[in-house]
Specification:
The protein is α/β, with parallel strands linked by helices. It has 12 helices and 22 strands. The protein has 3 domains: 3-43; 75-281, Rossmann fold, CATH 3.40.50.300; 285-471, Ribosomal Protein S5, domain 2. The chain has helices at residues 75-80, 101-113, 128-137, 153-160, 194-210, 232-236, 283-288, 335-349, 374-386, 412-421, 455-459, 466-471, and strands spanning 2-10, 16-17, 33-41, 90-95, 119-123, 146-149, 173-177, 214-220, 239-244, 251-259, 267-273, 276-279, 298-305, 308-320, 328-331, 356-362, 394-396, 399-400, 406-407, 426-430, 439-441, 444-451. Helix 8 (335-349) crosses helix 9 (374-386). The relative contact order is 0.09. It binds thymidine-5'-diphosphate and magnesium ion.
Length: 472
Amino acid sequence: MARVKKSYVCQSCGAVSSRWAGKCESCGEWNSIAEEVVEASVPKGMGGAKGRKIDFVSLSDPARSDYPRHVSGIEEFDRVVGGGLVPGSAVLIGGDPGIGKSTLLLQLVCSLSQKSVRCVYVSGEEAVDQVRMRAQRLGLAEAPVELASATSVRDILASVGGDSGGDKGPMDLLIIDSIQTMYVDNIDSAPGTVTQVRTSAQEIIRHAKARGMAVMFVGHVTKDGQIAGPRVLEHMVDTVLYFEGDRSHQFRILRGVKNRFGPTDEIGVFEMAGGGLQEVENPSEIFLSQRGENVSGSAVLAALEGSRPMLVEVQALVAPSSLASPRRSVIGWDPNRLAMIVAVLETRCGLQIGSCDIFLNIAGGIRINEPAADLAVAAALVSALQNNPLPPETVFFGEVGLAGEIRQVAQPDLRLKEASKLGFREAVVPKGKKKSQPKRVSGGAIRVSEIDHVQMLDELFRGNSALRAAVV
Ligand code: TYD
Ligand code: MG
C-alpha cells in the first residue's frame, strides 16, 4: 500500500525539510522552498512479502572480451570521456551561457553520425531552423543527424525508444540541450525547477540505460559556477564535464570532473573560431606564443592537466599602492593561494611585497588549479618586484609550503619532457629524493636546478650563485 507524503524541497540547493519556511536553512536562499509530493511505500514489517531471489554472476564474462565505445574522432573530446562515449552511459555537460556547449555537441553528433552512430539532437532552447542554420555555418548540414525541437520528456522518449514498434530500434545517442528546459507532465512544477530537472533526468536516464542508448545532457550553471538544480543531477549521471573558458578569449577547456569510465581531470582544449570549435593539439605552443622576451614578472609554468603536460605563462605585476588595503587581482588562479605565497615571500624571505598592489594573470584565459603553480607564481612575483626578468628558457614547477619549503609535485619527468620539447633549456624544480644531476629527457637535455626553499629564487637573479654552481 502506498501513502501520499509531502515534503518541502529547496529549489535552489535541493535540501529537504519537513515544513515550509521562508528561507532555506541549508543554502540561505529566500523563498525557494516548494512543496513536493513523494510517494512513500509503507515499510513491510517482519514476515511481509519476501524479496525475489537475484542471480549472481561472475565478474568476467567469457563471451565478451571488449566493450566498444563510440569514438567520435574529435580527439580532445574522446580523451576527456576516457576514450570514447560508453554505450548506455549518461553524460552531463555544464558551462556558462554562450561558452559553446551547443556548438560542441552539434559538432560531436555530426562527427559520430558519420561513423554510423545513430544520433538524435533534441533542442529545447532553439528552434529546428536555428540549429540548422548553425549546422550550415559549421559546414555540417549534410550529417545524418535526427533533429527535433521538443521539451516534453514523454514525447522525446516515445520517439527515440525503439519500442513504439515499426522503427529501427533505439538510437545510439540522445542529446538533450538543455535539461533545464525539459518537463514531465505528471508533475506540476515549472520546467527548470529542482523537481522537474531531477525527474526528467531520472526518466531519460532510466529509459536510455535500459536500451543501451548513451545520453548527453546540457546543464546550465548558476552564477557561482555549479550546475543549476540539485547536486543530485551530478550523482545520477556517469560522467560530468565542464566546458569552461573566458568568453573574451578564444580558448575553451573541456574538463572531466567525474567519470565512471575513465580518468577524471583530463582536459580537452578547443579554440572557438568562425567555423566552430577547433581542436588544439598542442596547447603549450599557443599559450606561449605571445610571450615577450626579457620582461619582468613573467614565468613559465610546466603544468599538468590530467595526463597532459602543458606550459603556460604566469604574469605578475607588482605596483606601489596608495590604498590602505592593497589590491589583489587574480585571473586564472586561486586568490587564497596567492595570498599565501605573498605571505610566505614576505615572512620567510623578507621581501617587502605585502603593501603593494598585486596583479596576477595566467595568460590565454586558462584556469590552473594545481598547487604546482606556486613556484612559478612566486618566481613571477619576485621578478616583478625586483623588476628583473627571469632567466630565459626556464620553466618552473613546485608546491610552496608555509615554511617556504618547496615540495615535490606529481610527474616531474612528464613536465620536463614537454618543456624540453618546446625548446626550454632549464627547469627550476623541487629537490628530489635522488641526488641532483642534469636530466636528459627525450627531445634534448634540460638543466635541472633543484631548490628546497623559496629564498633560493632570489639567487636566480645573481650571476654565480651557489644555486647555479650546483647545477652546471
Ligand atoms: P553556443 O554553443 O550557443 O553556447 P551555449 O550552448 O554554451 O550557450 O555558443 C555560442 C557562442 O559561440 C556565440 O557567442 C558565438 C560563438 N560561435 C563562434 O564564435 N563561432 C561559431 O562557429 C559558432 C557556431 C559559435
Ligand atoms: Mg546552447
